[in-house]
């Protein structure tokens, strides 16, 4: 009799586990099915065909008659739509077809719709208080690459030497927020390693764009413990010496 009870209990346990696994599988498949693909939301009904064509021939945007600074063009258009046309997308569409009365108008509209979708999703990421600034920056950059692959990314978000220093400060802030009791030696090691990773072969070009404020921020973050009890005069001297030390350690 006890043996039968054990068998029944075992069968019940197996049934419960199978039900749980089946439920989990359905849930995961449901999430996968309903998850929004950034690429699928980067067009509307009027721009869909042109957006899909653009994936195969993005170099058309480098052609004659297209804006030379695409990012500036898109931001200007966004300003017009928001403030001049009160958010009316129809007026944006009409404006582009009037200013570029051929395929260019349709292509630029497709790019603009994708750009505005990216901006909307980026704003959602920015509003998430649970994320650090570095996590937000990483997520937004990943989203850029998903929506605007390859040449499209390079045209809309061209590389600029000021970007790596900005990422570095954000990265250091994120590391310190996760490791508030870390020592300056460890913070410095982490910082220099990340700097090497970001700068790579372009280090000499990026160096010319490193602002005094960049180094001030880095030193204040790195040596916050040491500087806590210092006077303003002592901080100024200490900060200057540490900035020179950081430059020497990385560039030599």
Runs in which pLDDT lies below 50 for 5 or more consecutive residues are: 18-36
Q: How many H/I helices?
A: 13
Amino- and carboxy-terminal Cα gap: 81 Å
Class from helix and strand fractions: mainly alpha
Overall radius of gyration: 26 Å
Helix content, binned percent: over 70%
How would you sum up the major sheet?
none
Which word captures the global form? elongated
Order of helices and strands: HHHHHHHHHHHHH
Q: Which percent range describes the beta-strand content?
A: under 5%
What oligomeric state do these chains adopt?
single chain
Q: State mean pLDDT (0 to 100 scale).
A: 85
Number of strands: 0
Structural features, described:
This protein has 252 residues and is an all-alpha fold. It is built from 13 helices and no strands. It has helices at 2-34, 48-56, 70-84, 89-99, 103-126, 133-147, 150-156, 163-178, 184-199, 203-207, 212-222, 224-227, 232-251. α5 packs antiparallel against α6 (133-147).
Could you name the key traits of this structure?
252 residues; mainly alpha; 13 helices; 0% strand
Q: Could you give a quick summary of the protein structure above?
A:
The chain has 252 residues and is mainly α.
Indicate the topology.
Blueprint: H1 2-34, H2 48-56, H3 70-84, H4 89-99, H5 103-126, H6 133-147, H7 150-156, H8 163-178, H9 184-199, H10 203-207, H11 212-222, H12 224-227, H13 232-251
Helix pairs in contact: 2-5, 4-5, 5-6, 6-8, 8-9, 8-11, 11-13
